Write a sequence for this structure.
């Protein structure tokens, strides 16, 4: 029987801690990036498409269950390669067009690499599930190394998120054996939610047209250093940022 001395156990504990911390840091980094986008929309565009942001880190128990289910080798390197949703983030938006705009902005970040992109909005799952899924890879700088960490990002509308939350609760209440009648009801509800999203998207476009008609020209400030222009820019930023 293989035995470990105290030093071996301590080394294993440190590696496991560093492993999980890297995913936490990746979530922190992505949260910062999303918050910057939210602030930019609020201050520059007077509109914020991001309603809610949630993040979660899989527990070691959940990771182990998924490793066994996928029949992966139980090593940190294997887990890092095969389990791509240890760190997860869910972004909830108002409109479908917002989903694609946010995904585009995330993809344009220079230090982010897109690993997977699955569009369950254009191609819903058979049960009616809709969402946009991205697996991104982001660099994390530790004290003695750089780690490339994968984060799963799900982007949905409020209606999609409500349906997915309900389906998840029903799925576990019935221990994954959902009666066919309820499955049919869930599918019908998903179609209703999709129809609502399309209606709301139409209203969103109409509002945008009305706003454009009322304000055909955006107010652009000349960014030149000098006299009145600089003072005008300072006043503008004070109003936008709420500086007294």
């Amino acid at each position: 029987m293989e035995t470990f001395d105290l030093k071996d156990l301590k080394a294993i504990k440190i590696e496991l801690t560093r492993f999980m911390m890297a995913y936490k840091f990746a979530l922190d980094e992505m949260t910062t990036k999303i918050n910057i986008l939210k602030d930019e929309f609020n201050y520059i565009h007077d509109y914020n498409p991001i309603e809610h942001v949630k993040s979660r880190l899989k527990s070691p128990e959940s990771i182990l269950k998924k490793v066994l289910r996928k029949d992966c080798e139980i090593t940190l390197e294997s887990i890092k390669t095969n389990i791509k949703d240890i760190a997860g983030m869910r972004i909830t938006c108002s409109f479908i067009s917002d989903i694609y705009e946010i995904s585009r902005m995330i993809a344009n970040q220079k230090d982010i690499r897109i690993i997977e992109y699955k569009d369950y909005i254009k191609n819903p799952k058979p049960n009616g599930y809709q969402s946009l899924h991205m697996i991104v890879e982001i660099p994390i700088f530790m004290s003695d190394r750089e780690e490339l960490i994968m984060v799963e990002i799900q982007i949905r509308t409020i209606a999609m998120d409500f349906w997915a939350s309900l389906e998840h609760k029903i799925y576990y209440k019935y221990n994954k054996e959902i009666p066919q009648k309820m499955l049919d009801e869930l599918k019908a509800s998903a179609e209703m939610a999709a129809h609502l999203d399309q209606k709301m998207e139409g209203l969103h476009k109409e509002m945008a047209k009305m706003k454009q008609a009322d304000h055909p020209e955006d107010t652009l400030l000349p960014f030149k250093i000098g006299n009145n222009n600089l003072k005008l820019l300072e006043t503008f930023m004070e109003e936008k940022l709420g500086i007294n």
Notes: Helices lie at 6-45, 60-70, 76-82, 96-107, 158-173, 180-214, 227-241. The radius of gyration is 23 Å.
